[in-house]
Each structure stands twice: as structure tokens, then as C-alpha cells.
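Example 4.3 (complexes with small molecules)
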Amino acid sequence: MASQFDFDTIIIGAGHNGLTAAAYLGQAGHSVKVVEARSVVGGAAVTEEFHPGFRNSVCAYTVSLLNPKVIADLDLARHGLKIIERPMSNFLPLDDDGLRVWPDAKRWKAEVARFSQADADSLDTYNATLERLADVLRQLILETPPNAGGSLAQLWKLWRMSKPVLALDRQTQQDLVDIFTMSAADFLARYFRHDAVLALFAFDGIVGTMASPHAPGTAYVLLHHCFGEVNGKHGVWGHAIGGMGAISQALAAAARAAGADIEVDAPVARVLTHNNRATGVELADGRILTARKIAANTNPKILFEHLLDPQELPPEFATRIRNWRCKSGTMRLNVALKELPDFIAAPGTDPQDHHTAGIILAPDMAYMETAYIDARRHGFSAKPVVEMLIPSTIDSTLAPKGQHVASLFCQHFDFDLPDGKTWDDIKPLAIEAIFDTVSRFAPNFRASVLAVQALTPLDLERDFGLVGGDIFHGSLDLNQIFSLRPALGHADYRMPVKGLYLCGSGAHPGGGVTGVPGHNAAREMIRDFRRHR
Ligand SMILES: Cc1cc2nc3c(=O)[nH]c(=O)nc-3n(C[C@H](O)[C@H](O)[C@H](O)COP(=O)(O)OP(=O)(O)OC[C@H]3O[C@@H](n4cnc5c(N)ncnc54)[C@H](O)[C@@H]3O)c2cc1C
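Answer. The structure with flavin-adenine dinucleotide bound is encoded below.
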């Protein structure tokens, strides 16, 4: 059967998930062709030179969620991947002080006690609760969610997957329901009182979500950012030497070692079908490539609204995709710096531990809420929530000696702007608001900027194929996760056209540099290859 096709599998998109799927399929002995629209592999997990001599992870900028099974199975260390922990995890500067999160639990607790003894006393319970919940998630993410439909096989799967949940004690079961349904603010208020401590934790609940920390569902987003690990240490965020592109490069090397052929500058214009079965792709340059199975690493909206004729889809599925919510509300700056930020709360431009941290500029919950409300009214806030990382403080490969690169990840920048404004028009104003925000905490910042690359939500869509600027290929809303991702009946990576699979973040368990949708989709495809051989 394979002989009538050019390949066993074609993967549309060499994002890190497409590469992961390619590596697993190749290892299973299938011929794989990956076609990528951009001129580099990696999608949102890339390192690029944005200013002469200054390289940075231009979109995703910090690692934790990359699954340890993927790292081990694909031997990514052998393919050059090295991930290190940050000396300080987070730093939340205030006007006259700063809250520092240390990797060492005792030191971190002592730091919280400086702000609130009661909050320090709650820290162990909070961490233990979150770890128990993250552990459930860790077990579920590598599973294929059960599809709706009630077949015996699906019922069996549902029972099997519910086992880890049923094994939990009553309190943890309650916490699990709560974290899936509550707001980050309400969930955190059970443990903490001090505004800075609340803001520090709530940041994870609004990342990439265009929501107030008081919106139901944001507690789950918080948990989604906690199930990862760095070198076996749970919940920690770290840095890939060479930037996030190093992850994609290692995955591409693993895929090539397994026999996959990866072609860049090769956008797919259309998925070809015959009798409602995917049979190949037509590239923008007119070439036709055929395969027994096609997997799309793209946002589901690209696949089903641009690459396929909607007539191929069941009407209810087409409606689901039309309503697929893509709205992260993020803007991303990459900045070349001639010196490090001199924080009012931690003076000095010589490298210090806080310069290595994820620096969260959002001093309290009211600040976050106001930033969201402003963004709803005006598109973005004059005082936005910003996380800044300066990876050159721990990775000398990124900037000339003595100079630095910073990643600024900015929340609540609405893709849809009011009053007929366009992102291209207001981009300079948005950059100013972000610079003002950083300068409020580190007054030397503005003068230290040598160059800036700014990616508005529209740039993320145009340059990276992130529809609506959505960093997760679809919000992690309760109606868009697990068996509902991307649609009831299709959470098993098999799409309504035969031989067509979704292997990117629009599939379970969603976005982040995890490799998991690629891993899980490849497993299902390999199963289908065996069944239909
Ligand atoms: C600004 C930003 C910051 C982020 N920060 C972090 C972070 O710090 N840590 C983290 O873990 N996650 C982060 N994320 C999220 C994470 O990067 C993404 O969820 C993840 O990288 C998506 O991976 P993917 O492989 O599923 O899809 P993508 O990376 O989107 O890859 C899809 C690929 O398909 C290609 N493509 C699209 N259309 C076509 C076509 N027609 N033909 C051929 N190819 C096509 C695209 O060019 C792209 O390469 C961030 C994302 C962004 C945008």
C-alpha cells in the first residue's frame, strides 16, 4: 500500500510538536516528511538573531513543561539539549522592596515570612496541594483523552483514566474540582493574604489567557504552568542553553536521526483528500506530496478553515472550529541591552541573582485587575503586567560579553482592538507603555536599550501562524481542554477526515513547550498504521 504514496506520513509544520511526532514516527520505522512554512524549524520555540550579535528565544522563553519522557525517549541530551535551573526562580520588585523566590524551600519560606508570617506558614500546605494536583495532571497528559460516544473501549478508557483521581483522598478530589473551576484569585486567597505574594502566584493564572485573575478557570491556567520540572525538580522553570530553539534543534536532530526529512520554506496551501480521506498536501509552490497519513501541527483553525475545504467537515465540527476561542492577549519584546536593569528595589547593574530570575512586574492583584480592565476598554493598559527574563545572565551564547538580551512577556494585549485601531498603528504606543512599566521599577532601563524587536498579537499571527495571537493554539478554557480539545469525539488526535491527525497544541493537553501533543498523536498514528497494515 505504501508504494503508491511518497511517504507514510506528512507532517504540516515543524513546530516542536511536529518535530516530536516526526521523531517518534521515524523511530517506529515510518517514512516521514515534515514541511514547514517558515525558514527555521521550531514554530514558537525558536532562537533567532534579532539584532546583530544578540540572539534570543523570540517567542517562548523559559522551559519547564517539556516532558521528561520525551526528553528521555528521544535522547535529547545526546542531540545537544542542556537545560539548567535558574539561580533565583522569581523576583517581584515592589517600590521599596522585592519578593524573591529561591529554589531552596527553606530560603523561600524565610523570604515570604519577611512579608507575612501567616503566608509563610501556609506555603507548605499550598505547595503540597499544588504538587498533588500537578501529579494528577502529569498522569493524565500522556494519555489520549476518551472520546464521547460510549463505546466499550471508550468506557474502559474513562474508567482507567479516572483511577488516579478516584485513588485521591476526598480533600484532594475537592481541590481538583476547585482548581478546574475557580478563579486563581479565589483559589490563592485560601492560602495567602499578602498582596505581593498573591500577585506572584496569580501571574501564572493569567499567562497567555487574556483574563482577569478573578475570572473562573484561571486557577486551571495556574496549574497548567506548574506540572513541569527541570532535571527532575518539580514545578521549577529553567533555561535551555542556546535558548528555546535549542529544544527544537535537538528534536529536529532526533527526527532526522530517525530518518525524517524536514523541509523549511515549504508552506502547505491545501490538504488533498479523496473520498473523505486525506491523501497528501499541495505546497504553495505547486508541488504535490502524497502520504498514507497527514498530521497537522498547525492551529486547528488553519487546518480546517484554510487548508481543507469546509465541505469535507461534518457541519457541527465546522461550527466548533468557527467558535474555537483563540485569544491569549500577549505581546512579546526582545530587547538588546547595554547594561542590566538597576532596580530601585535591588540596586546595581552588576549581575546579581535577581537578574537571573523571572522578574514579574505586577506588584499586586489590583494592578493585574486594572491592567485587564484597561485592555478590555483600550486594547492594552498603560500599566501592563510584564514578566522579564534576562537569559544572557546565565547563557553567554546569547549576547556580546558585558551586554545582554531580555525577553519581555506582556499580558493583556487584546488581538481585537477598539475604535478601528490596528496593531500596526499602535505598536509604538504599546512599546512605550511596556518601557515605562519596566522603567518604573528600574529607571535605567530605557536608556540601556540598544535595539528592540516587538511582536504584537497580530505579528504572532502573521509571522508564526498563531491565530488570534494565541500562544496555546486555543485558550485553555474549560470547554477547550481534555476530551473537548479540539472537539468532542476528536480528542484522540483523529480528525473527522480519515487519515488526518492533529499533533499540535490545539490537541490535548494544549500549549506550552511540552512535546506531549506530538508524542500522543504519534502513538495513535502508529497504532493505526499497525491496525490497517
Ligand atoms: C510569545 C510566546 C511566549 C511563550 N512562552 C512560553 C514559555 O516561556 N514556555 C513555554 O513552555 N511555552 C511558551 N509559549 C507557548 C509555546 O511556545 C507554544 O504553545 C508551543 O511552542 C506551540 O508548539 P506547537 O508545536 O504546538 O506549535 P507551533 O510552535 O505554533 O508550530 C506550528 C508550526 O506550523 C507551521 N505552519 C503553520 N501553517 C503552516 C502551513 N500552512 N504549512 C506549513 N507549516 C505551517 C508554523 O510556521 C509553525 O512552525 C509561548 C508562546 C508564545 C507565542
